[in-house]
Amino acid sequence: MIISRLRQVGTKLKRNPFVLSVRNKAAYEGEGKTTVRIINQEQELGLMIDSFSTVGFRLNNGITVLGPIAIFPRTILSWQVRTSNEINASALGLFKLLEPKVDLLIMGLETNERSVVDSVFRASREVKINIEILSTEHACATFNFLNAEGRSVAGAIIPPLHIEVNEDDMLQSKLHYQNIYEKNI
Question: How far apart are CA 158 and CA 91, in angstroms?
Answer without folding.
Answer: 13
